[in-house]
Amino acid sequence: MQTDGPLSGYRVIELGQLLAGPFAGCMLGYFGAEVIKIETPNGGDPIRSWRQMKDGTSLWWYSLARNKKSVTIDLKTKAGIELVKQLINSADIVIENFRPGVVEDWGIGPTAFKQSNPKLVYARISGYGQTGPYASKPGFASVCEGISGFRYVNGHPEQAPVRPNLSIGDTISGIHAALGICLALLEQKTSGTGQVVDVALYESMFNLMEAVVPEYDGANVIRQPSGSTVTGIVPTNTYRCLDGKYVVIGGNGDSIFQRLMTAAGYPAMAQDPALASNSGRVEHEVSIDKALCDWCAANNASHILNILDLNRVPGGPIYNVEDMVADPHFNARGLFENVQINGETLKIPAILPKLDKTPGSTRWPGPELGSHNQHVLNEILGLSEVELTQLAQDGVIQAPN
């Protein structure tokens, strides 16, 4: 068990793969939980071989699987299922993100542990949740971002909806799962029993949809995509500058708007009573946006940002990862951590939020496949070397290197 962090003393069995479940496990492990990741002996989690590779391993893996213990168990074997049952009975938390019904078919669903481990918190992540007419449908993040309503409001009018170049449906669902687990642990202290945390990818994205439902029900308005602006809030947009760089300007507060337009060289607009409130500015969005667009197009981004700072107007650049790594504020806030991979330093992102009393940390990067087999199966389950050797010969676990 870990000895530091707010989740120190909690043992997690992570049965999921790819992103949503593993990101939830990553968050719990970062804040002190002991996370035992169960992987198939034949290759392990697919993310080990996704995207940019170095020395045969995905660079993503070292970040996503940090602080986890890799144990290889073949869940298609009876002996493998029995090992997992024993591990779950020793644990406080389970995370799984298989299609609904799969873990029940294996005999390791939440009801299987009601008697043997009543305090167990069992987190389940799926595309559409464990109930309802869509429960059995396959649900990748891209699909669930679409049905949630999130994709509809992204992009430009009359064009195909745009997706960010990230699997945010998975990551947002992982955050929801981690939150749900912590809430269940709080309740467990009162009731003495655990519960199931049911997280759906589409519902996690639905949770981001702000006022679209009451606006539709109360005003019959369907919010539409609006490019780089936000419907009903003016001005807030992204503008191209003389040097080709982009800046984001958020000047939608009443007093902020006055300072912005004065600094941009439009004092008449700053003092126009028709533009004094957001409702008036929404009516005149085109003219306000044109003025700011012209101002930015005539000046370099650094000049625009300096003027915004001097006049206390929220604004900032559009960063890529190179910009982030070089930025002094990112570094002062500790958003990057260094780990050692085969004798070389690799920079990975910190996990947020920040806690001043019990902060999280990266204790080790994503491990090699099955590197904790002997430690976990011997120390937790008490299996002997002879038993481990036999399990490896039978293909239930990965043979030691």
Walk me through this protein's architecture.
The structure is a single chain. This protein folds into 2 domains: 11-207 and 334-393, Rossmann fold, CATH 3.40.50.10540; 236-240 and 246-317, formyl-coa transferase, domain 3. The longest helix is centred in the middle third of the chain and has 24 residues, at 168-191. It has a 6-stranded parallel beta sheet, sandwiched between helices. The radius of gyration is 25 Å and the shape is elongated. It has helices spanning 20-30, 59-64, 78-89, 102-105, 141-147, 168-191, 201-206, 212-219, 254-263, 267-271, 278-283, 285-297, 301-310, 321-326, 328-332, 373-379, 385-393, and strands at residues 11-14, 34-39, 53-54, 57-58, 68-72, 93-96, 121-126, 196-200, 236-240, 246-250, 315-317, 336-341, 344-349. It is of the alpha/beta class and 401 residues long. The chain starts with 10 loop residues before the first strand and ends in an 8-residue tail after the last helix. The protein is built from 17 helices and 13 strands. Helix 1 packs across helix 6.
